[in-house]
From TrEMBL:
<feature type="active site" description="Proton donor/acceptor">
    <location>
        <position position="270"/>
    </location>
</feature>
<dbReference type="InterPro" id="IPR008141">
    <property type="entry name" value="Ala_DH"/>
</dbReference>
<feature type="binding site">
    <location>
        <begin position="267"/>
        <end position="270"/>
    </location>
    <ligand>
        <name>NAD(+)</name>
    </ligand>
</feature>
<feature type="active site" description="Proton donor/acceptor">
    <location>
        <position position="96"/>
    </location>
</feature>
<protein>
    <recommendedName>
        <fullName>Alanine dehydrogenase</fullName>
        <ecNumber>1.4.1.1</ecNumber>
    </recommendedName>
</protein>
<dbReference type="GO" id="GO:0042853">
    <property type="term" value="P:L-alanine catabolic process"/>
</dbReference>
<keyword id="KW-0547">Nucleotide-binding</keyword>
<dbReference type="GO" id="GO:0000286">
    <property type="term" value="F:alanine dehydrogenase activity"/>
</dbReference>
<feature type="binding site">
    <location>
        <position position="203"/>
    </location>
    <ligand>
        <name>NAD(+)</name>
    </ligand>
</feature>
<feature type="domain" description="Alanine dehydrogenase/pyridine nucleotide transhydrogenase N-terminal">
    <location>
        <begin position="4"/>
        <end position="137"/>
    </location>
</feature>
<dbReference type="GO" id="GO:0005886">
    <property type="term" value="C:plasma membrane"/>
</dbReference>
<dbReference type="GO" id="GO:0000166">
    <property type="term" value="F:nucleotide binding"/>
</dbReference>
<feature type="binding site">
    <location>
        <begin position="239"/>
        <end position="240"/>
    </location>
    <ligand>
        <name>NAD(+)</name>
    </ligand>
</feature>
<comment type="similarity">
    <text>Belongs to the AlaDH/PNT family.</text>
</comment>
<dbReference type="InterPro" id="IPR036291">
    <property type="entry name" value="NAD(P)-bd_dom_sf"/>
</dbReference>
<dbReference type="Pfam" id="PF05222">
    <property type="entry name" value="AlaDh_PNT_N"/>
</dbReference>
<feature type="binding site">
    <location>
        <begin position="298"/>
        <end position="301"/>
    </location>
    <ligand>
        <name>NAD(+)</name>
    </ligand>
</feature>
Length: 371
């Protein structure tokens, strides 16, 4: 198979779908790899590094899209990318379709077979291709929140760790999954007073064990949300219902109960966000203010640290990428966890959460692959 990797074009997105190390693996499996010139610049991998790994360098993205059987990317295709996709081609990348009707229409019209990293599953109930970027974004959320909390940046001017004789800042984390765990770990490491809210009691038990009393846990009710958000300096939004639009846990009305200059970091923004007042921002202009509360809603947070992120992402995506390259669509038939990643195939929606969110008929992946 010919595997193509275009340069990412989303605002300040410096990650790359294939590192030179991954290219070597595809080449070792007998595949041709076509990489757009400059695709790895953001991680310090120049075209010669890709040539040394066995790739051919394409001058333009158009060349990569036209000549490849499978496109491996990081971010969801942008409008001028989805028009270049076609029937019979595989797209392997993050998609986040539930909050994005325009992209969904574009992918359906193209006929492409689109596999979303974020809905591929594993035996432990996890999302193995989302997890590494959730680890990065969770850790980054506290850096971003702490920066926004500084007075000169519009925040209320609190140092998260406090100092001897002065109480630390308070961080509330909504959703104690992968993002939430890593946010809590960073916040606790800085000395903040941290509370995690989740609706899963088994998960709260795990977190309580893990942090051995260093972090508080609370079951998710409106009362708990209000108390923990109203007293917080930073609230990290980290809830997820896989594939679906995020539930709006913090309403606009609740902002009036929050401290002026406190910060909402909505990591869940790629699934539409869990604060009613969130809208996606970019690394170029990451924050805005509503009712005195600073909002940070960057939908591609890991793009800020591409050297770490691209390698962590490739570690997770390589296995299934090779399966797809080796076997084509049979890889989806053979492995139900990979099949759970199938969101769009030949003009049909094949993921239930996406179909429900956007009002499409669901076509079962097994049925569509057998056709
Ligand atoms: N903005 C960005 O750059 C990035 C965003 N993300 C996003 O962050 C979000 C979280 O991802 P993960 O931590 O990997 O998900 P996860 O599945 O590991 O964790 C989600 C947690 O939310 C909890 N939850 C669901 N509904 C809840 C509710 N109503 N109240 C309280 N808790 C609730 C679940 O029990 C679970 O523990 C996702 O939307 C993901 O796409 C991930 C990486 C980068
Ligand atoms: C998961 C995601 O949206 C990202 O890594 O950009
Ligand atoms: Mg406390």
């Amino acid at each position: 198979m010919r595997v193509g990797c275009p340069k990412e074009i989303k605002n300040h997105e410096y990650r790359v779908g294939l590192t030179p190390g991954s290219v070597r693996e595809y080449v070792a499996h007998g595949h041709e790899v076509l990489v757009e010139a400059g695709a790895g610049a953001g991680i310090g991998a120049d075209d010669n590094a890709y040539r040394a790994a066995g790739a051919t360098i394409a001058k333009t993205a158009a060349d990569v899209f036209a000549k490849s059987d499978m496109i491996v990317k990081v971010k969801e295709p942008q409008p001028n990318e989805w028009v270049q996709l076609r029937d019979g081609q595989i797209l392997y990348t993050y998609l986040h379709l539930a909050p994005d009707p325009e992209q969904t229409k574009g992918l359906l019209a193209s006929g492409v077979t689109a596999i979303a990293y974020e809905t591929v599953t594993d035996d432990r109930g996890g999302l193995p291709l989302l997890a590494p970027m959730s680890e990065v974004a969770g850790r980054l959320s506290i850096q971003a929140g702490a920066t926004a909390l500084q007075k000169a940046n519009g925040g209320r001017g609190v140092l998260l760790g406090g100092v001897p004789g002065v109480l630390p800042g308070k961080v509330t984390v909504l959703g104690g999954g992968v993002v939430g765990l890593h946010a809590a770990r960073m916040a606790a490491g800085l000395g903040a007073d941290v509370t995690i809210i989740d609706r899963s009691i088994p998960r709260l038990r795990q977190l309580d064990d893990l942090f051995a009393g260093r972090v508080h846990t609370r079951y998710s009710t409106v009362e708990a949300l209000e108390e923990e958000c109203f007293s917080a300096d930073i609230v990290v939004g980290a809830v997820l219902i896989p594939g679906a639009a995020a539930p709006k846990l913090v309403t606009r009305e609740m902002l009036s109960g929050m401290k002026k200059g406190s910060v909402l970091v909505d990591v869940a923004i790629d699934q539409g966000g869990c604060f009613e007042t969130s809208h996606a921002t970019t690394h170029a202009e990451p924050t805005y203010e509503v009712d005195g509360v600073i909002h940070y809603c960057v939908a591609n947070m890991p793009g800020a640290v591409p050297v770490t992120s691209a390698h962590a992402l490739n570690n997770a995506t390589l296995h299934y990428g090779l399966q797809l390259a080796d076997k084509g669509l049979k890889a989806l038939v053979d492995d139900h966890h990979l099949r759970n990643g199938l969101n769009v195939h030949k003009g049909k929606i094949t993921n239930r959460a996406v179909a429900d969110a956007l009002g499409y008929e669901l076509v079962e992946p097994k049925a569509v692959l057998a056709a």
